[in-house]
Design goal:
InterPro entries: HypE, PurM-like_C_dom, PurM-like_C_sf, PurM-like_N, PurM-like_N_sf. Pfam families: AIRS, AIRS_C. This is Hydrogenase expression/formation protein HypE. The protein is an alpha+beta fold. Helices cover 27% and strands 22% of the residues. It has 2 domains: 139 residues, PurM-like, N-terminal domain (60s Ribosomal Protein L30, Chain: A); 163 residues, Phosphoribosyl-aminoimidazole Synthetase, Chain A, domain 2, CATH 3.90.650. It is built from 9 helices and 14 strands. α3 runs parallel beside α4.
Length: 365
């Protein structure tokens, strides 16, 4: 009989079981969770530390540095992630590039410029030194791409039978003048997807299981800050950010991300199936395997919610970049079906896009 009193694979898959684990067992047992605008309770891509409060506390404690010119110094943004992908090498990439990209992207979708990364690696006995070196070089290359240094780290080894592959944890520190929240979606906002969905998850699954599908199935792993840094600077006529919310659709895929944004913001979301960018090879593989591409993980895409009058401007900026050439407006936030995501199919019918409930493809990131 199934044991409901133990951790299962679906508890780390990004869907409802993981959200329940975090809500019921983690948040209920950790106190003192906020140091800035965004804290652990918010379950955003990261959390923040208010710089103004630090300056004020220093002044109150007798540190007399003149901070009179510090006009809105912003918020420090911190995020951390552990990467357990199997295998460590997959089409067109490896766990090293994944670790750096994932952490950079968690900062970027909160509107934060990456300042520095840390890295901790746990390596099993018997892991090939040549493979280890390739992973480290990939980390360096990804970090250099967005000009962020890896400033400190830690390495541990465990017995051969204690771990089946390398595990990497990366923590990112960034700074944002105005933090972008994943709960900021407003009625009327347009929803932009920066590229094709399902590339990472399907390419990894095909590689891992030995499926002979097609040669263009490769991971989309990429650090997105260079593409997003101009987008987060766009302002409305009133001088407010044009971007209402952002999130990268990793575990749980687009379905998980949109449902989380709808639930947190209290709006409805309507997307158009005809407008979803998806490669034919990915769509064919998903159909053959019985997988919903909306639930497949991505590692080089972002969901951007933007004021309608700025949607085309944002789209044009994204399409100028290599990682955004397939960007598309896929839907909008509505006043109907609050907290839910609906999709209009090619024949005009509607269906709910539910959050994932299981572990579609384990060890995906």
């Amino acid at each position: 009989m199934p044991n409901d009193n133990v951790i299962k694979m679906e508890h780390g898959a990004g869907g409802e079981p993981m959200q329940a684990l975090i809500r019921d067992l983690i948040l209920n047992n950790i106190t003192g969770r906020s140091a800035g605008l965004v804290g652990l309770d918010d379950l955003d891509d990261g959390a923040t530390i208010n710089i103004s409060s630090i300056i004020e506390n220093n002044n109150n404690n007798g540190n007399s540095n003149d901070n009179s010119n510090c006009n809105n110094p912003g918020e420090i943004v911190v995020t951390t992630d552990s990467h357990v992908i199997k295998p460590a090498f997959f089409p067109d990439s490896n766990i090293g590039r994944l670790a750096v990209s994932g952490t950079v992207n968690d900062l970027a979708v909160m509107g934060a410029e990456p300042l520095a990364l840390t890295c901790a690696m746990i390596v099993p006995e018997g892991f090939e030194l040549s493979s280890f070196e390739k992973i480290v070089r990939s980390m360096s290359e990804a970090a250099e791409e967005v000009d962020v240094p890896i400033i400190t780290g830690d390495t541990k080894t465990v017995e051969r039978n204690g771990l089946d592959s390398i595990i990497i944890n990366t923590t990112g520190i960034g700074i944002a003048n105005e933090v972008i929240r994943d709960c900021g979606l407003c009625t009327g906002d347009k929803i932009i997807l920066t590229g094709t969905i399902g590339d990472h998850g399907i390419s990894l699954l095909a590689h891992r299981e030995g499926f002979e599908l097609t040669t263009d199935l490769v991971s989309d792993v990429a650090p997105l800050w260079n593409m997003l840094k101009d987008v987060v600077q766009i302002r409305t006529i009133e001088g407010k950010p044009a971007i209402s919310a952002m999130k990268d659709p990793t575990r749980g895929g687009l379905a998980g991300t949109l449902n989380e944004m709808a639930q947190k913001s209290g709006t409805g979301i309507l997307i158009e199936q005809n407008d979803l960018p998806i490669k034919k090879s990915v769509a064919s593989a998903c159909e053959m395997l019985g997988i919903d591409p909306l639930e497949v993980a991505n590692e080089g895409k972002a969901v951007i919610c933007v004021k309608a009058e700025h949607a085309e401007e944002v789209l044009a900026i994204l399409r100028e970049h290599e990682y955004g050439k397939d960007a598309a407006i896929i839907g909008e936030a509505t006043e109907e079906n609050l907290g839910k995501v609906l999709m209009r199919t090619p024949i005009g019918s509607m269906r709910y896009v539910d959050p994932p409930t299981g572990d579609l493809i384990p060890r995906i990131c």
